[in-house]
Amino acid sequence: MLNAQIAHDVIDHALSLGADFAEVYIEKNETNLISTLSSEVQSVESGINFGIGLRMVYGTKVLYGYTNKVDKKELQRIISELAAKDLRDPQSSMQAFNFEQVNDLHSPAKALSVDPYVESKIAYLLKADRAASAAGNQISQTRGNCMQREQNIELFNSDGLHTTDQRQYIRAVLTAIASDGGEQATGSWNDGGLLGWEIQEAIDPQKTGEEAARQALINLSAKPCPSGNMPVIIGNGFGGVIFHEACGHLLETTSVAKKASVFHDKMGEMIANPIVSAVDDGTMVKQWGSINIDDEGLPTQRTQLIKDGQLNNFLVDKIGAQQTGYEATGSGRRESYKFAPASRMRNTFIEPGDSSLDEMISSIDKGIYASHMGGGSVSPGTGEFNFAVTEGYFIENGKIKYPIKAATLISTGPKVLKEISMIGDDFSLACGMCGSVSGAVPTTVGQATLKVDSILVGGNA
After folding, report:
1. Mean pLDDT for all residues in the chain
2. Per-residue pLDDT tens over the stretch 25-56
3. Looking at the predicted structure, is the pLDDT value of residue 348 above 90?
4. Cα angle: 282, vertex 286, 291; to 5 degrees
5. pTM for this predicted structure
């Protein structure tokens, strides 16, 4: 996408101004988004976005700029402006580019640039709508969308690295709204991955619609949630969002290097119940949060964060490695060319155990089963969180009694890790978007259903 000689001259210019390291990141994005509202197509949108990101490093200080132009003089002008306050004699010399071919583990069969498959995607969303609407007269509306994105990147740096990669993202979502005339409730279901529209062969619009409607109808009939400290069972799949937000971010060198994480000095220590092992794995084939290489050009890997309760690793990008001394883990990610990369999660999950949901429920006298989790807020420095339960049930005397609404879970990541006492065998993963200093990136969360012995539950019963 960019002439190698131009990249060489731009990087050489950066080094002549005293930078220790320089990088040129080129990105082209092609997107297609189809939206439906109930039984009608609302919009079909397509677009192409292109840009170049320029990064200079002085010690551990990062300077970053970007442009949509490929002109060498413009790129060198940006470099000169970035370095204006940090000029010094040259510290490093340019290495000759050595092209590294990426081993693509996620090659798509139905790529967006070949065909947007608009009619097929519309048919999927409308069939999911019909399945949701057929679930009952109380389903008043559905909203669906199917997003496909093809991201092509090229990267040059002063260490001599030159590489390219293509990433194909797909995600299909249906949300159902139930109403009884006085109140409304929602439910949703989505599937996605790092692949093309061939995902259609593995996803079922009937299941998508029925599951979205089921959640909405359950929530419409739910009772107010009681409050207080109590044991909570957190469901599999997207339930892993609590670990991702309240613990995962604290293991990124983005926060560890600044000592803004409670775990910054806990390497090798027991930070969780011994039954807890957690992983961040960028190598999982065709998973939503997977990558062949990170956005610094390093191969991705499987990183064991916690093993049997002990902290084993952090998630480390290039700058984080310099700041902390830990080896890079192929975790440098960014939303687009407009952002400098930072240490970020990929597919992050707690590994499964051998308990059953029935065993967990029967062990609780009074508590909550949060079968589906939603969004929330987290304090990065402490891991304090507040998460909404999108589908939950009250447990009494070892049995599920009734569905609940307006429940929130309040605790801290470090505390929850030690309160986990049972982990199930029903492991699954779920798609999400993670926001941080380098923008929003596709990430996967996951876990088997697990029991936390004590969480503060907020409710309005």
Report:
1. 96
2. 999 999 999 999 999 999 999 999 999 999 99
3. yes
4. 35
5. 0.95
Decide: helix, strand or coil at residue 112: coil
What is the C-alpha to C-alpha distance for residues 227 and 232, in angstroms, rounded to an integer? 12
Provide CB contacts within 8 A for 201, sequence distance 6+: none
Please state, in angstroms and rounded to a whole number, the distance separating the CA atoms of residues 461 and 459: 6
Q: How confident is the model at residue 18 (pLDDT cuts 50, 70, 90)?
A: very high
Residue 408 carries which side chain, given as an amino acid letter? T
Nearest 5 degrees, angle CA 11-CA 14-CA 18? 135
Residue-level pLDDT at 460: 84
Q: How confident is the model at residue 450 (pLDDT cuts 50, 70, 90)?
A: very high
- Assign domain 4-220 to a CATH class: alpha beta
Question: Scanning the structure block, which residue is given the tokens 């510290």?
Answer: 91
The two structure tokens encoding residue 381: 């420095």
Q: Which residue has the tokens 């044991």?
A: 231
Strand partners, 155: 25, 163
Task: Determine contact, residues 340/55, Cβ cutoff 8 Å.
Answer: yes
Strand intervals (E) in 245-383: 278-281, 302-307, 310-311, 332-333, 342-343, 347-350, 366-378
pLDDT at 381 over 80: no
Neighbours of 30 (CB within 10 A): 19
Q: What is the DSSP string of 121-181?
A: HHHHHHHHHHHHHTT-TTEEEEEEEEEEEEEEEEEEETTSEEEEEEEEEEEEEEEEEEE-S
- Domain extents in the chain: 4-220, 223-458
